[in-house]
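Reopening this one. Same input as before:
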Amino acid sequence: MARISRKELKSDRFAQDVGLTVTFFEEHQKDVFRYGAIAIAVALLIAGYFVYSSHQRVGREEALTQAIQIQESPVAEPGDPAHGFPSQDAKDQAALKAFGDLAAKYSGTDEGYLGTYYIGAIRADEGKFAESEKFFLQVADHANDNYASLAKLALVDIYYSDGRTDQAEKVLNDLIKHPTVFVSQADATITLARHLAQKNPAKARELLGPIRAGRGQAASLAQELYAELPPG
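Same output, byte for byte:
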């Protein structure tokens, strides 16, 4: 099931994307101070807003970090119950509560949508695809483009798993046309080619050709998949 990698969540790029939201006041701060006597009053309002906004953002990020730490925690080995959750189910329940609290408390924020996304991923890992689909759709329909694209990629796996091939390919073609920070054009193209490998290997080759001629991890993945394609 597609999800944000733990490494990605901790990267500078993620921190910038989550934490550096540009507000109307930040964009127009210089203009605000051009309006004479009202400038001081406006400045005080802006300062108060920044303090409140910063405090709220820190709280959201701390809640997200704590939820991720639960998700990353190990399950205890037999004979060593002190180091980890007693079972995978216990860990999943704790993670679901943490991400559920995050999604409820910070509904409509990036962190809230990430909480919803993770709930969908956990439910998918449990095999509860109908339930996970509902959570992924919330993110796909309402989050910003970056997080929505992750949810859409996760939905593709669900659509393919229950035979909704046309729907899956429609989503992938849209992701190819509209790449994001987290789902590049190459990511979406390789995913589509992988699913086309058996029924239409010629089309899969066509998709992979430009990518495998490039460099980097995407090129390596495309080369591997290309080499595995059946004749036809």
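So the earlier flakiness isn't reproducible anymore. For the record, The longest helix spans residues 38-72.
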